[in-house]
Every structure is written in structure tokens, then in C-alpha cells.
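Lecture 7 notes: from sequence to structure.

We start with a single chain of 343 residues. Read the sequence below before looking at the structure.
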Amino acid sequence: MKHKEHIDYEKLLIRYLQDTADTQSLQRLLDIVRKSEDKKRELAELQSVYDSLSIRLDAQKYPIEASWEKMRQKINVDKQPKVSRKSITLLLSYAAIILLALSLGIQYLYYHNLRQPQEVADSYTRFVVEKGGGKSSLFLPDGTKVLLNAGTTIQYPTRFDQKERMVMLDGEGFFEVAENQQKPFVVRLKGHDVKVLGTVFNVKAYSDMDHTVTSLISGKVLLTSYDTEGSIREEQVLHPDETARIDKQTGTITTFRSDDEFQLAWTKGLYKFKDKPFSDVMSELEHLYDVTILIEDDKLAKSVYTGSLVLKNTIEEVLKPLGQYNKFRYRKEGHVIRIYSEK
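Now the structure, written as C-alpha cells:
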């Protein structure tokens, strides 16, 4: 990239990060990106630097985690660009100064950290998706794309080490892992690991669940559960279209045929369930909407339901039609919802 083109690219990217770029600017940025091979990693490094400086940005105003997906939607591009990575020192200088000025008003903090690159590189980034029915996506430093469900926390290093690519997850995530046969990708959960080389899978492991669920779409994963002292308790290889349920208490791994229509519905903004106890459906809504739901009728709690809910709706918009159809009423008091059976 020529010097003038490089400066133009920096300015376009800064406008994009500030969400001030018009359609023409976004198209120009995309044209530049398409000429290189690894710009996804460039964006991931920007995210990591901002997080390592403890900057909390308004996701609506500075949609970094939406990354290239949002840009493609704005200019109606169907195919995601393959991007590459070159030196981003000057880019970080421009973009981080602007974002810091906007969010904290402190420029010294950026320069202090920029002059200690090893310290930044070895730190861990903690990415949290707020509850409320939403989801968010991001690219990890190796180019792996992750879609995270509401109420999920993921922690990952700003630079993976030489032996493996390890992340820690509390919640639910859909992973499209960048292939690297020499460096396995590991998702560390409470009591067990999911180890892959290059694959697509979904893992659900909220901390308040008594089990975790891993569904494999393509590739192959190795599931390993551990006892309280860290010794291996059980191992199981998962193949495409298989799902594994791991009991957190016993470490027992149970596999069965996947049903992607239900298990991956959340990635399309839906919550689908079939023959599920009403209490389980309400527990899922607690995760998604950051509320406490109390069912005041045991018979209602044990009743079985099948249905589909749109997650972009508010909790009230979800419960109202459910209540009308299934004969229950509810009362909301702050973050607590009480559900009563209609007599």
C-alpha cells in the first residue's frame, strides 16, 4: 500500500470506528481491505488494545465489536472481505488517541501503554455481552470469529502463545475457528475443556447451569472433563452433528444427535424449544433478559411447552402472548417477575 493510500486507509478506519463514515467512505475502506489478506487480525488487535487500557465504550456509538459485519451490512456487500495485516503502529496512534479522548479524555494512558508492547500483548481481554436479549460478535487475534449470546463473558489473551490458543467462556458462544494444525484452539469451561484444531461449534456453559452443552457443526473436537484436583475424569471425541452434555458435578459426558434448528436458533435471534418444562423455558429467559422469574404454581412449572420466541422483543413482549395462549398472568417488580396460573 502506497504512503498516500495508507494515510487514507487510516482516516477511513478512524471514521468507521467513530461511526461517522458515509456509504462512499465505507466502500473505499472495503476496497482497500480487499487488496490485503489479514485485516481481521488488525481489527482484533485494536479491540485488544482498547480493552487492555480498560476503556468501556458505548457499543452503540463505537461499534468496534460489530467489526466488518456492520460495514458490509451498510453497503450491502454479500461476501465478507478477506483481509490482511501489516504494521498498525500509526493506525493505533490515530485511532486510540481519538477513542481515548472521547471516552476518558486522557491521552497519557495510551502513550504509557503503547511504549510497553510486551505488557499489553501478554494481558488478557475480558469481553462482556450485556443481558437483555442481545448478542455480539468479535474476531480473536488468530482470526477466529465468535458470536456471543446475551449474558456471556469471554476472556482471551491479546496474543496467543506458541503452544495453544486458549480462551475462557462463561455463557454461550458460536465459534468459527481459524485453522492451525500446530496450535490447537481450547475453550476452557468450568470443570472441562473443548479442544479443536479448526472447526465450527456451539458451546453453552453459563456458570449457574448444572451442565454444559457442546454442539459440533463441522470438524472434530475433544472434550475433556476434570475432577476437583485437576486430573482427567473423562474424554470424548465429538463428530459433526453430535452434541455432548457434560454434568458439572460428576464430569459425565453424554452424547446424542444434534438438532441445529433448536440449538443454534439463538444465532438467528430466536429461542426455539420443544417439549421443554415451563420452568426450563423461564430459566433461559432469565439468562437472556437479566431478570429473576418466580413461578408461583408447581403444576405450571412442570407443564411442557413447544414454541419459538423472538429475542429482540422485550421480556414483556415475550411473556404477554405466552400468557394469553397458555393461561398464566405475571407481575413485574423491578428485575423480579412473578408468574401465576389463571384459575
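Residues 2 and 8 are 10 Å apart (CA to CA). Keep this in mind for problem set 3.
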